[in-house]
Amino acid sequence: MLAYLLRRMAQAVVVLLLVSIIVFLLLHAMPGGLVRAQLGPKASQFAVRELTIQEGLTKPLPVQYGIWLSNALQGNLGIAYKQSTPVATLLGEYFVRTLILAGAGLLLAMLLAVPLGLLQGGRRNSLLDYGMSGVFLTTYSMPYFLLGVAFIWIFSLKFNLLPSTATAFGQSFVTDVRVLTLPVVTLALGNAAYFSRYVRSSVIDNLAEDYVRTARAKGAARSRVLVRHVLRNSLLPFVSAVGLSMPTLVSGTLLVEVLFAYPGMALLFWDAQQSRTYPLLLGILLLVTGFVVIGNLLADLAYAALDPRIRYV
Amino acid sequence: MVLATGLGSGLGAGTAGASSKTPKVVTGGSASYSLLPGDVFTWIIPIESQNAYEPYQTNVEDSTYLPLYWFGNGSRIGVNYKLSIGEPPVWSDGDKTVTVHMKSTYKWSTGAPVTSNDIKFFFELYQVGKSKIGNYLPGLLPDNVASVTYPNSTTFVMHLKRAYDPEWFEGNQMGWIYPLPVQAWDKTSLSATGSLSNSSTPAGAKAVFTFIFSQAKDRRTYSTNPMWKVVDGPFVIASYDAVTHAATFDRNAHYTGPTKPHLASYSVYSYTTATAELDALRSGKITFGYVPYSELTQVSYFKSHGFTIKAWPIFYDEVVEFSYTSKEWAPLSRQLYIRQALQHLITEHLYIQRTLGGFGLPDYGPVADYPHSSYVAPSLTKDPYPYSPSAASHLLSAHGWAKGSDGYLVCKRPGTGPHDCGKGIAKGRKLTFLFMYSTGTTAFFAEVSAFAAAAKKVGVDLRLDGQTTTTMYSIAGVCPTSPCKWGLAGYAGWFWNYGQYELLPVGEDEFGKGNYWGGGYYSPEAQKLIDAAETAPASQAKKALYRDETYLSKQVPSLWWPLQDWEVVAAKKNLSGWQQLNPYANYMPQTWYYTSSG
Q1: Is A81 in contact with B51 (Cβ distance < 8 A)?
Q2: What is the ipTM of this complex?
Q3: pTM for this one?
Q4: What is the pLDDT of residues B174-198, one digit of tens each?
Q5: Which domains are seen in chain B, by residue range?
């Protein structure tokens, strides 16, 4: 297992390095460069020249990358010029907030998907099953921004129950819960629909297995069989689905953060790409890549934890 | 202008119906103001870093730190001496010396008076830090000042290196001057007390400047840093969210200026998108916001839900640039008759009515004629090239262009004669421009499309190329050495703004030598007129300004484009005092107050 872990970590490092090179090249290939984009339209040619020299943009590209990599390995990801703050500091703050949003969204999605999928699988082809499938199909088909806009219209504008933006996040726990409700539910619903289908299918498959028949024959109640025996085996495909959904979750978080003006990393990324803050863009993309790589690794480890037959060497 | 104003009034007359009770002015309360999408308040001091040099930053700063001269008198342009710290400057020595007497009534919130020492402090810092300051241009303030003397605590005298038109210098240079609290800021550490001597040497001033800028960059401490509590403006910062850039300002209880605020506090909010702002407005979070142009159909909703709707026209300039430095399109851009012909294909009034819902002004030169003032030449009230496809066709055919088999014009008479296509235009060259425009607004796209359609009818091929505004900031303007792939560049709702840093619409930054946003336009005649407008003696200044404006208007260095209003204001009905909207887009919260009925 240790060897497996070490191999995966080494792979992760290679992936991160490759991603950093590709992203670095792509960012610098964007027409126009970053200086004017950062300084805005009123900047004089004098100011442009000053920042160009300051940012080292007159050096050859490999040299610029080398400087960036050398600094990054020492924990210095550069300065976000517009915010006048080290990139690492910004990432630390914003990433935590995005983690809260994405984590809460994922958790809610899983909390909804598992019991509902189990319920559907256990009552296959019933009215309940069809009804829930219809609801999930609807929410799954709706893109995040549409769901979000619908929630804003209903809960903020029509009934004034919840705020339409999450800009007040961080003021207090109560405020945080209020402002996060709509963004979290928006993120969760689509994913819950997606996950629950996996759970449902897996439950249906497992209900046909011999061990279930044996347990029932021994007198175990249906509910006990479902929860104590079927559920655990049914979670394997679900865990894979969760792992594979990481990139979608990240992109969904971007939409949700922009829609609700939630001060997370996705919104930071949006601002950074608008203003061509290269160090920040690089830092965010590397962090997200790392997040996806680690997410997949955790999914694989969870797989092994759930199924004793799976062992990595 | 009358048409636009009338339409604006017709659409926006948001005053309440006649009431038998006179609304009572309420002292106190809190209001909230929304910046335009993407604008974020990130700089607290009135000398701005290069990336904080934006008019909306200045407008927020001006609620805490007063400039020497305040621009905008209600909805009228010009210097507002009533709100200014400085009395009207006195010129002498052939307009090479300017003496400013400061009013003795202004005080910092510490109780210390605002004096010429605070001006001296400003100049000391500006001199050493100018390369890091956003509005600095080599050759202009402070480079054009030989020396400054301070005869007493309320007077300073600037000795200039050359004579200037007093009105130009006052409007386009002295607007940059802000008294800075030397007794609180002249230090290099937070724990130190300010003095009057740290910055008196260049090395000392540099250390102080570096310290002040480092503090200003630390936005997390905006609400706690004692330096920012020393203000001379009507408000003082109370809280700041470094993540969302939301800020709250409390009334400065020690404010000694003439327009004392009624509000106890106000907040500034930033939103990434107009949609988020609109939602916040509808849900009641914003007291003074705007209806995005893409959502003008919601104006009636807001009117029926307790909001006043009003157009906010501004003294700005909106253009579509020509590229004068692109190898491919510069030969076309340099031909006056081509520029005139294209201008004949723009129907500003129609664009204003149809795409902007009436919330805009026609713009026929380096500035639109709003509000009507002596700063704008009478010639700028008339379209120099009214919409006329026939006039456009005539101009082009008179210079050797004729339609080819595909319906587009090609040059049949190359050469540099008066009836030839022009220098650098080969025979058979098609009359094509790549028109790069910023995406993201349906109104602007509609205008651009209408222009392209009109051009197509007369045989001009305008190939539209939508790009993000950020990309255009980088590649439109003067072409870099890398391939320059645009012949025309237009930005949705990006203006050349006049205001605190530039009062007189001489056009020196836009169209003068070394400009960036004029596409690299240069004309010796235009430059001569620009220089004359900057340096003419007072008796000749207006004539020089008008000659400059008229010449530029007729030369069409950039295509004159309808100027959309700064925003379509949506403000709570019980919020008043803002209705005389500042033409430089300064929202001036010190004029706001709530009313209660009877």
Answers
A1: yes
A2: 0.71
A3: 0.83
A4: 999 999 999 999 999 988 877 777 8
A5: 1-38+233-314+568-598 (3.40.190.10), 316-564 (3.10.105.10)
